[in-house]
Design brief:
5 helices; four-stranded antiparallel beta sheet; five-stranded mixed beta sheet
Length: 435
């Protein structure tokens, strides 16, 4: 069994271009990525005002490097947020947190110009009342979606929802709560039933989920929300450990302060994942102890919590030694040394813009991509300009980030850019148009 794990690791390391946040079940890009697909929120008065998938050519050897090769609008504004690729890398799923629509794009027929393959409009009814499809995570032949809310009270109680790659509903798995633990062990104070992100460690038969807040909060103006003491109590404080194959919750861990993105280690000897807390500005480790029990431990601070830096997206290095952490409110990218996972140390910072949200890095760590938008009612409005809503690409030499490409999405009349995913001709036996 151990040689299979080592072989899997070697094959993964050979794919030296792909993002480090993706599912271990996913087909990987080998060599330079050719495109970045940016899921973008439409805003009034900018372009056609619709949500869209924007494709940017990012291979320096391409004849159209830096160009927008496609801008595909989907109709209306859906609170465009997160995306995920199927395990065969042929389709990209993109969700709207407000309308609950899921748009499935064909990215394999023509990687430079994706097409809209299918729209799922009955997510709420099919799932039994789940609202706010967020993470779309690849499992073998399946997509596991996390919800953020529900249609009964629009609060934070929610579920996981499973689909086939073809977009057919499979099942709903509600998060464990105090009144229905579903066999899970409540290890601390909380069993809130909230959801946000999901990741898997197949070698441990582990699925892990984090928690955020419901529709009532994420669709409210940020200033109004933060002034409402009761609303600020309605944020998640848990990470849940699941049996991956059985889709059953096993243990509920306390991680106070809205733990958002989850990123798991790649080395087969590293049985742990990281998350960061939006409200308390901390790095947390979710790990298996020497007795085989899963635990949660605070392992680092992120800036000055009193200034509300608001950590958002994170990206782990392929060798598990470092972790990028974006803090939205101050526009900073922060690099942490996590070679000792129980002691995360900040070693570098870089101001990316007036705000920064998502971060994606190539497998070799040499290219780092950033986008700016968080949520429609949370994004900053002033000052306007190239550092407010952007896609920026940096080269990273291990010490410094150097900007090599930037696109002002407002000036380009595209809207506000949210999550990114990489694309490549090589995945489908096609070749880049060289200079």
């Amino acid at each position: 069994m151990r040689w299979l794990l080592l072989l899997s690791l070697l094959l993964t390391l050979a794919a030296n271009a792909d993002e480090t946040c993706l599912s271990p079940y996913m087909a990987k890009i080998e060599g330079q990525e050719d495109f970045v697909y940016v899921w973008t929120l439409g805003i009034p008065g900018i372009g056609d005002e619709q949500d869209k998938l924007v494709t940017v050519s990012v291979n320096p050897d391409s004849s159209n490097y830096g160009d927008i090769t496609s801008s595909l609008s989907v109709g209306g504004r859906n609170e465009a947020h997160h995306t995920g690729l199927t395990d065969d890398r042929r389709y990209l799923w993109a969700s709207g947190l407000d309308t609950n629509k899921i748009f499935i794009f064909d990215v394999h027929t023509d990687p430079a110009k994706p097409s809209l393959h299918k729209t799922i409009s009955n997510f709420v009814s099919k799932s039994g009342g789940v609202v706010g499809p967020h993470t779309s995570y690849a499992l073998p032949g399946r997509m596991m979606l996390t919800g953020l809310s529900n249609n009964r009270d629009h609060g934070g109680r929610t579920a996981l929802v499973e689909y086939t790659n073809a977009g057919d509903y499979v099942a709903t798995y509600w998060m464990p709560t105090d009144d229905n633990l579903q066999g899970a062990v409540k290890s601390g104070q909380f069993a809130d039933g909230y959801g946000y992100d999901v990741r898997a460690l197949p070698r441990k038969n582990l699925m892990v989920t984090s928690s955020f807040t419901g529709w009532n909060n994420y669709m409210t103006n940020l200033g109004t929300l933060m002034a409402d003491a009761e609303a600020m109590k309605a944020f998640g404080n848990t990470v849940v450990i699941w049996d991956l194959h059985a889709r059953k919750p096993k243990k509920i861990l306390d991680v106070p302060g809205a733990p958002l993105e989850l990123r798991c280690a790649w080395n087969p000897d590293h049985n742990y994942c990281f998350t960061t807390t939006a409200l308390t500005s901390e790095v947390w480790l979710i790990y298996e102890d020497t007795q085989g029990e899963w635990q949660a431990e605070k392992v680092g601070d992120i800036g000055d919590a009193s200034k509300i830096p608001l950590p958002v997206d994170i990206s782990i290095f392929a060798d598990d030694t470092r972790l990028w952490v974006d803090t939205w409110n101050d526009g900073m990218a922060r690099l942490y040394d996590i070679s000792d996972p129980h002691n995360a140390k900040q070693i570098y910072t870089k101001k990316i813009g007036e705000q920064v949200n998502m971060v994606s890095q190539s497998w070799d760590g040499k290219r780092v991509y950033f986008t700016s938008s968080l949520l429609r009612n949370w994004d900053k409005q002033e000052p306007s300009g190239p550092d407010l809503h952007y896609l920026k690409i940096y080269d990273f030499d291990g010490k410094e980030l150097e900007e090599v490409l930037a696109i002002d999405f407002i000036a380009a009349k595209l809207g506000t850019p949210h999550q990114m995913r990489f694309g490549a001709y090589s995945l489908y036996g096609k070749k880049v148009a060289a200079k």
